[in-house]
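Reviewer comment 2.1 asked that we show a complete input and output for one of the modelled complexes. We chose the magnesium ion case, as it is the one discussed in the main text.
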Amino acid sequence: MNKQVTVSVIKADIGGYVGHSAMHPGLLERASQMMEDFRSRRVLIDFHVTSCGDDLQLIMTHTFGVDHPQIHQLAWEIFRECTGTARELKLYGAGQDLLADAFSGNVRGMGPGVAEMEITERESEPLLIFMADKTSAGAWNLPLFKMFADPFNTAGLIISPAMHAGFRFEVHDVKQHQRIFFNTPEEMYDLLVFIGATGRYVIKAVYTREGEVGAVSSTQRLALIAGKYVGKDDPVCIVRSQGKFPAVGEVLEPFTMPHIVEGWMRGSHYGPLMPTSVRQATPARFDGPPRVICLGFQLAEGRLIGPRDMFDDPSFDEVRRQVNILADQMRRHGPFEPHRLPMDEMEYTTLPQVMEKLRDRWEALPETLTPA
Ligand code: F6R
Ligand code: MG
Ligand code: MG
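Response of the prediction step:
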């Protein structure tokens, strides 16, 4: 087939079970029923509903293209309906990520996270979908860099003629709402200047040098949308694999390093990202440590063949062990940096309210103690 197919992953936290640790099966069931209805009416080619921690992810294929109101609206309807179920069960934080009352054509800016790509399905199209909980949008920067630009991770950059030219990265400045493109390997150092600052610069997409999309991430920063802390972004990312893109094993390899991300308890701490099976994506210890899951699919005329639960594999046991050791080490710092986020990042948590209460208690230093 040479037709275009769109893969949309739209997610939201609409209520946790228990606390913020997991998803109630009733919500997964209700979302699946509604998706089935949209599939039988041929709005969707196919779908898969899953959860990572307290986030509900709707994975969909269709032919409407990215940012289509009909697809965004159906996701919004499902989140609204499931919020009703969450309210009945009095789940924790029911409707947390739905920041608006009425749908206005696109879920962007309304709370849910979105990653979408329109592609021409190849002869064989292996897709990997990453979903994280208790962390923020910049969490994909390091793994995406390794997958598409680091030859120590991706042997294909050296060995495969299909990848030897390198890739093109689209980076968004989520605070100034601007973007920039970098070609690797030539501009690798320039790229790293920005993407190392994960709270502000986020890799939105990666393309081949011919412009074909290879990866897309959700860049929604909930706190910046809501103007206050309502929960972490808990981002998603779609990666195409094999052939001109990194092999499945090269796409998964970055997650063997227990890399430190922001999020965890109250969205206010740094901690290591733990790759787990879907079943084990239930962040409980100190509301964490942050989790990442990966579902693998083969696309067949837009149908989602799968999923395979990619981190449900003993070769990721060692990184999980290392994450636990690092988690212990970070936790021992308690409320001290670098476990707790630095002050300017705490601006987007509930801490400013406490600081406001103490504002009038500050007094000027006596002159004798003031530097000349
Ligand atoms: C992290 C997260 C949780 C909560 C924490 C406190 O993204 O959502 O860690 O911040 O459980 O929640 P509240 O203030 O609702 O009791
Ligand atoms: Mg939650
Ligand atoms: Mg969450």
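Residues 4-359 form one domain. We note this here for comparison with the apo prediction described in Section 3.2.
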